Automatic annotation (TrEMBL):
This is Response regulator transcription factor. The modification 4-aspartylphosphate is found at D52. Residues 143-214 form the HTH luxR-type domain. Keywords: DNA-binding, Phosphoprotein, Transcription, Transcription regulation. InterPro entries: CheY-like_superfamily (IPR011006), NreC/VraR/RcsB-like_REC (IPR058245), Sig_transdc_resp-reg_C-effctor (IPR016032), Sig_transdc_resp-reg_receiver (IPR001789), Tscrpt_reg_LuxR_C (IPR000792), WalR-like (IPR039420). It holds the Pfam family GerE. CDD domains: LuxR_C_like (cd06170), REC_NarL-like (cd17535). It comes from Streptomyces atriruber. Residues 2-122 form the Response regulatory domain. It comes from the Bacteria.
Length: 214
């Protein structure tokens, strides 16, 4: 894959470059500040962009703004956002449109190489990859809504769905049958008023669109 990396921390940036090149990917450009990000993305049009949320000069949301602007110019551009902390507002803004090919991971996830590379490939393929801590924030940030009607098991299934896990992985992790997972997913969609879908990615995106609307 062709990748653009935007990260102001030189040590982390070079570490990600080394990690990706060692995995057989091509890093076509790097950016160390917010103003560098959008031009690099528009010039190289990568298969996926890996972006820090907070970058110079303001260290607020420069990376995220560049990601949103790039996706407006290049619809469907896969973007994997990295953050030091769970920043719920930024995650909601990125995911609010229900668009495919988006990810939001905490930076310590990079150290779990297999998980990071799997998330990157999932996002590049049009899927969704959310850090479990981010998912927890999204699932708990609203009160008095249909989420309250979900059973503990249904919430577990919904969280794993939002992380981008398929039915087989959910079944394995929860130590239940595939049929049980399908039943739980059907219950989740029914309670949230969302139509079931044959596509794992569309299913996740529908849930995220629901969580972020309004």
């Amino acid at each position: 894959m062709r990748v653009v990396i935007a990260e102001d921390n030189a040590l982390l940036r070079e570490g990600v470059v080394l990690l990706l090149t060692s995995a057989g990917h091509e890093v076509v450009a790097v950016a160390a500040s917010g103003p560098e990000v959008l031009p690099a993305l528009l010039e190289h049009r990568p298969d996926v962009a890996v972006l820090d949320v907070r970058m110079p000069p303001g260290f607020r949301d420069e990376g995220l703004r560049a990601a949103l602007a790039a996706r407006a110019e290049i619809p469907g551009l896969p973007v994997l956002v990295l953050s030091q902390y769970v920043e719920e507002t930024y995650a909601a803004e990125l995911l609010g449109g229900g668009a495919s090919g988006v990810g939001y991971l905490l930076k310590d996830r990079i150290g779990r190489v297999d998980e990071f590379l799997d998330a990157l490939e999932r996002v590049a393929g049009g899927g969704t990859a959310l850090d479990p801590e981010v998912v927890t924030e999204l699932l708990t940030r609203r009160r008095d809504d249909p989420l309250d009607s979900l059973t503990p098991r249904e919430r577990e299934v919904l969280q794993l769905m939002a992380e981008g896990r398929d039915n087989a992985t959910i079944a394995s992790q929860l130590v239940v049958s595939d049929r049980a997972v399908s039943k739980h997913i059907g219950n989740v969609f029914a309670k949230l008023g969302l139509p079931p879908s044959d596509s794992g990615h569309r299913r996740v995106l529908a849930v995220l669109a629901y969580l972020n609307r309004g």
